[in-house]
UniProtKB/TrEMBL annotation:
<dbReference type="Pfam" id="PF08402">
    <property type="entry name" value="TOBE_2"/>
</dbReference>
<comment type="function">
    <text>Part of the ABC transporter complex PotABCD involved in spermidine/putrescine import. Responsible for energy coupling to the transport system.</text>
</comment>
<keyword id="KW-0813">Transport</keyword>
<dbReference type="InterPro" id="IPR003439">
    <property type="entry name" value="ABC_transporter-like_ATP-bd"/>
</dbReference>
<keyword id="KW-0472">Membrane</keyword>
<keyword id="KW-0067">ATP-binding</keyword>
<dbReference type="InterPro" id="IPR003593">
    <property type="entry name" value="AAA+_ATPase"/>
</dbReference>
<dbReference type="GO" id="GO:0005524">
    <property type="term" value="F:ATP binding"/>
</dbReference>
<dbReference type="InterPro" id="IPR008995">
    <property type="entry name" value="Mo/tungstate-bd_C_term_dom"/>
</dbReference>
<comment type="subunit">
    <text>The complex is composed of two ATP-binding proteins (PotA), two transmembrane proteins (PotB and PotC) and a solute-binding protein (PotD).</text>
</comment>
<comment type="similarity">
    <text>Belongs to the ABC transporter superfamily. Spermidine/putrescine importer (TC 3.A.1.11.1) family.</text>
</comment>
<dbReference type="Pfam" id="PF00005">
    <property type="entry name" value="ABC_tran"/>
</dbReference>
<dbReference type="InterPro" id="IPR027417">
    <property type="entry name" value="P-loop_NTPase"/>
</dbReference>
<keyword id="KW-1278">Translocase</keyword>
<feature type="domain" description="ABC transporter">
    <location>
        <begin position="5"/>
        <end position="238"/>
    </location>
</feature>
<dbReference type="InterPro" id="IPR017871">
    <property type="entry name" value="ABC_transporter-like_CS"/>
</dbReference>
<dbReference type="InterPro" id="IPR050093">
    <property type="entry name" value="ABC_SmlMolc_Importer"/>
</dbReference>
Amino acid sequence: MAKAITARALRKVYPGHPPVEALASIDLEIQDNEFFTLLGPSGCGKTTLLRLIAGFEHPTSGSLEMFGESLLDSPPYKRPINTVFQNYALFPHMTVAENIGFGLQMLGTPKAAIRSTVAEMMELVQMTQMADRQTSQISGGQQQRVALARALAPRPKILLLDEPLSALDFKLRKKMQLELKRLQTETGITFIFVTHDQEEALTMSDRIAVMSNGAVRQVGRPREIYDRPADRFVADFIGDTNFLPAKIIGRDGETAQLRLPSGKMVQAHANEASAGQVTLALRPEHAQLTSEAEGLLAGSLRDVVYFGTDTHFHVGLDDGSEFVLRQQNGPTVAHSYVTGDRVGVSFPDGAAQVLRD
Ligand SMILES: Nc1ncnc2c1ncn2[C@@H]1O[C@H](COP(=O)(O)OP(=O)(O)OP(=O)(O)O)[C@@H](O)[C@H]1O
């Protein structure tokens, strides 16, 4: 089965003094019917990649295929691809229904077909009640839904979404995240979604490509990206991470035996043939606070910070570094350590990940 999108050695340099290499050399495959997210900090090349797929920009070199056929000679309007922009770009003096039908009208679709598709799309985004309202008279979340319906109406094979939720407030954003995922599942259209918000990426995506400096650092399912970050950049960019020095002294497939600076031994996941001195990544919620004697690491408790849903413990390890643990709060959860206590930090075999660099 051909992939929805296949990019090989895709490179984009914007001319100028000096020129900007926005995409270094990207290899990427996006499956049909996938909710695929491009995640990375500002300026890493996410929008550039979307613009190449949409056809608004031409690559400097490399290949770009959709369902096994090159996209490079096809102008944007001939690609069965639609884009939802951050600012929605709705026509304020047109009604909800007119906005949704606009693309179809431009394509010369017969009136009856437009009417039935518009009705179907309004149903899909739950805007049927507001069909005759002007889009200048509806809320931000409703505008977002209309923009989505308008982009979905011509039934593109791929929908590109460039930070479509960033103008919405926190609550509405959460709601729209779920709605977008539902829309993708219901329509079966491949969604390529751009965001710099890691939580948004983790909650909605089938797979995520983490980008930095024009390169793809890791592609994987949200859980893989979170639990098994490939390198320090990914571990640092997504969630909070503790980094620990360790030495690999044995290996059984993807499981490495490591010695910690304390002399204690632990097993961790290692993707590649890393050897010798390495860095381990460990999530704060994957570690437990213990007595000094029971811990794999030892130190003093520096801070206890209450966050409502959980409590963060900052431990000053004996090697001078800081380790953060996170423990979920509950009506029966209590801890007996106070700032200044000697404590241990422990974590189960398999909880930590050996990083690539
Ligand atoms: N038209 C252009 N001309 C020159 N440089 C550009 C142009 N568009 C983007 N760039 C540069 O290319 C790099 C990648 O930009 P891009 O917009 O793809 O990043 P992004 O990850 O989408 O960032 P953001 O999250 O801020 O939108 C940046 O360094 C940017 O300044």
